[in-house]
Amino acid sequence: MFIMSMPTIVGRPRASRLASRRRVARVMCFLLVAAIACGGGGAVLSPADAPRVALDSIAASPASVQLPAGDSTTIVVAAFDDQRNALTNVTTTFSSSDVAVVFVSPTGVARAVGAGAAIISVKATAGEISRTVFVPVSVLPPGTGTAGGGAGSGAKIVTTSGVSFVPSSITINAGESVEWRFTGATHNVTFGALKPTGGNIPDTPPGNAVSRTFATAGTYDYQCTWHSGMTGRVIVSGATPSSYTTLIVTPQTPSIDVGGHVTIATSALDQFGNPMTGLGVATFVTSNAAIATVDAQGVVSGVAGGIATITASLTSGSVTHTASATVTVVAPQANTATVETPSLTFSPQSVTIGVGGTVTWRFSGSTHNVTFGALKPTGGNIPDTSPGNAVSRTFTTAGTYDFECTRHNGMTGRVIVQPGDPGTGTGAGNGALASIDVTPATVVLAPNGTARLTVTPRDASGAPLALVATPTFVSSDTRIVTVNEGLVTAVAVGEATITVSLTSGAVTRTTTVAITVAAPAAAISTSASQFTPQEVSIRSGQTVLFQFSGATHNVTFKDLRPTEGNVPNSAPGTNATRTFSAPGDYDFYCTWHSGMKGRIRVQ
Questions:
Q1: CATH architecture of the domain covering 55-140
Q2: What is the CATH architecture assignment of 522-602?
Q3: Does the global pTM surpass 0.70?
């Protein structure tokens, strides 16, 4: 141990003396720590001995994915501690909620398999701590593209949405091409160490497209040097041979009648989610032959009411994978109805059952959902369901259950649930039919706009009755507006009246609804995942036309809402109108696409 005295400092100004004393004090502290360390009186804490900071949060990029069937992208995961420092020693796993829609490899390569919606779960683990984020995926039909269609050469498409490359990561095979379509502003594509044939893409103004061919396998990172953080990646497969990784079956949840049949198809996928062929023939077994049998070709036959699991197995070399389908066999019973989905319609559009009855929706053609209005059956709405599957709902309360598929504009239907015996002309003991209400009572539409009329019968006291018969709807001028089972469609500018009649027993009640078709005050389109224009100004009582293109979008209002409420998911090529009766700023956004927002100012 040693002792060091503080030297005396004289002959200088006070400020200078204070500064010198501080320097000496710092030197003494350093020497004291060193002395303790050398003399065994203590230990200096090294950075390696500092407490470890736990995994606090993770982020996935992209946060949401939209791809045409057959395309792919890579989900990149970043992990952080509670100080937002990046962590590297993290194990990441990926899983898909529906492999018939999107398959995700162990390395995060997501491949769009079939049209529909699914969720990719991303789980990161460090030590005993795990964090999970969810990436919503929308898969469009083949050839749809994320920028209004694929390139004529078959190249994969990347667009410049805002100041981002969309998708930010794309996977192709060696020898294939990628086309960059430039919108919004001037951009360039500047590659890192690996460059494709033709090299970098120089500054390119909006409205142009440039392709590059990738002859060599590898990961090609690139950026736009004009915009900080605007980066992308092209992953070129070829260096790693394909290996049999996954087996999927479709449909996954079919429903058939006793005596009915459905074929279970299998698909083998490699680690990139690409289909593989020539691996052999799958075998099938049933969990309960008393309910459903299955032959060597995967044809399932319904034997008796119940649920059975059909398991498919496929072996290639020393690798075997299995996948299962849950088959519901419906036994014949009274008070049931079936609704099909041919050609983007519900067929039949209206069915009538008694209280306690069941309706089964059998999905075909493309992915659909069944979204009910105010009245909902046991089990509620039916979410997006892929073709080949069937879902049932039981209706325990009398009433009229209007429903729609929010993915396809104008795809609507109705379930009429009658109390007691159908056709009695009375409503659950509430009395005879005295009047009918129709909502909305007045309708304002732009040309090609639609609205749904809902009928409520009432007794003499004004109490609502169950709708025990189908109302009739008649337009006073079909040149202005047409009506089909309550769905009003505007044809041309003008005014018309819809007459609504309802008969119960020997009693008929009638009312009218005024329809005004007016040219829209403004039109908003969905170009390149943006609302264009992003802001419009109109007067109170005027109508705005939303024109959907490029991909499926919706219009979700934040605080103030128009008379008809939000616009549900709408496919490309469809339109929707909304009328704004009160002044204010109506902010809105699309829940599918981050940053896609707009505003309607009503004066």
A1: Sandwich (2.60)
A2: Sandwich (2.60)
A3: no
